[in-house]
Design a protein that fits this description.
Blueprint lengths: L6 H21 L5 H14 L4 E11 L2 E12 L3 E6 L6 H14 L3 E6 L9 E5 L18
Parallel strand pairs: 3-4
Antiparallel strand pairs: 1-2, 2-3, 4-5
Helix pairs in contact: 1-2
């Protein structure tokens, strides 16, 4: 069972979900992911929540930089939000969020698919427990991000 994220990150996730619901109420399904990314960024800003779009993260292999990943949204420096506009969420989408959580050593990610009739059906909460992974990710290790 994964360790639950800190309470403040969980509260932040609820605020982001509220903002995403507002965007979905206004736009509905059917647009490109980039449209939802822009709208959610605006809505979070209107709510006083600090968000960064398309954040580049280093991808390391045995302490060597091998490339970069991009987070759709990084909220308040601790919550990863991956947005989709697809027919359905498949396991690789969840794996993508887990990979981003591991790379940033964050504990919680939201995977939100806007291509649904009711947004609550498109929200997936992804919890990451670093204790299950390499010793370098365990508590006390320096976060390079």
């Amino acid at each position: 069972m994964p360790q639950e994220p800190p309470v403040e990150i969980d509260r932040l996730a609820h605020k982001v979900i509220g903002a995403a619901i507002e965007v979905h109420r206004n736009l509905g399904p059917g647009f490109l992911e980039s449209i939802y990314e822009e709208a959610v960024t605006i809505e979070l800003g209107l709510r006083g929540i600090k968000v960064h779009r398309q954040v580049v993260i280093p991808i390391l292999y045995k302490d060597h930089l091998v490339g970069e990943g991009r987070l759709d949204l990084f909220v308040e420096g601790g919550l990863i939000v991956e947005l989709k506009a697809v027919e359905s969420i498949v396991p690789i989408h969840v794996t993508q969020v887990v990979t981003y959580l591991r790379a940033t050593r964050s504990s919680l990610g939201l995977l939100i698919n806007f291509n649904v009739r009711l947004l609550r059906d498109g929200i997936h909460r992804v919890v990451f427990d670093p204790a299950r992974y390499a010793p370098s990710l365990r508590e006390g290790a320096e976060n390079p991000f």
